[in-house]
Specification:
The protein has 380 residues and is mainly β. The chain has strands spanning 4-6, 30-31, 36-38, 51-55, 58-62, 75-77, 87-91, 96-100, 107-115, 118-126, 133-142, 147-151, 159-164, 167-172, 183-186, 191-194, 203-210, 214-221, 234-240, 250-251, 260-262, 265-274, 286-293, 298-300, 318-319, 322-325, 328-330, 337-339, 348-349, 352-356, 359-367, 370-378. It is built from no helices and 32 strands. The strands form 8 sheets. Strands 2-28-27-26-25 form a 5-stranded mixed β-sheet, with no helix packed on it. Strands 3, 29, 30, 31 and 32 form a 5-stranded antiparallel β-sheet that branches.
Amino acid sequence: MSGRWARGVAAAAVLAALAAGCTTGSPPAGTVEAGWTALPDAPLAPRRSATAAWVADRFVVVSGWSDRACPPTADCVLDPGAALRDGAAYDPAADAWAPIAPAPVALWTATAAVVGDTLYVLGAEADPAGDTVGEPVLLAYDAGADAWATLPSPPEPWSALVAAGDVLLAIAGTDEHGPTTDAALDPATGRWRTLPDDPLGPSFDREAAWLDDRLLLAAKDLVPSPGATEPAVVRLAWLDADLATWSAPTDTEVIGWAPVAVGGHVVFPGLGDADGGEVGSWGRPYPFGGVLDVATGEWRPLPDVGDETTRAPLAGVVVGDRVVVGDGLLDPATGDWARLPGVPGPEATERAVTAGGGALLVWGGAASSGNLADGYLLRP
């Protein structure tokens, strides 16, 4: 992987699929009354793109970058020396931070998941000797022991980590470079076992969500020029609790990304829709977002909250039994939506965002004035 990289602005729209003929969702229902609370100073230097997670009743913030963010559309030189290894944990009950053991290596980019009291982080090692990105590394942080371990990387190193109960999964993102392998980590042996091939066939935008007793795989057919003449819609398949048997594929009308599990629902939190444009029109709009009721198999549209959002970095974050959609929190069981108050401080990108214990945490990020080291907590 080259040391030169382009940073794009990822549309936090995500997806969903309403059944044919669905109407627009209901308008917003209210506003979150609680406000953001400023956190005490963390024992961390300002940074962007840190990894944050809820682990063992604490918010853990680790790694990140100390250099300035690369402007959108710019081509910047990677500075591995700016990659950070240190971290800290915030205890909301005590309203206090404490340093944690530094990670064994600094990671250039990372995907994370929590299983039990262990935070798993998979990323590319930042090579301090040059402007290249090293080999993929899987790290495991044991919150109880305050200790890190290095584990074997999954078969497909550029996978997304997914917590499936007490099992860690690695789901490959695309078959564009050839057939890929999904795998599960055996916590006792530290070895990966291959999952059965899914029934969706060659796909891209492969993403997964765990719903207590089964795994949902969402993906789009890998065809020449996806979306050129017809929409690249999401297709679904379910893997049982034993991670052994797949269901038959299910078609949707979704064109978005990033499904999340919220109770007995799957939410694709993207706003708006697309119709292919004047050239290659698809004939009608297809939605980016929606709500799937797993028990009934029925889809519902997202609330009509407009296509614009100032909370894009928060989109898809699950807080208790609700999920951030647009500028607010959606209860997928009732359809109620409540607007969130704006995050304090300067406008910033690359914030560390996570939720746990019924609260939403935002920390650090990149502002026009430089990187930040402030944090805020919201208990909606």
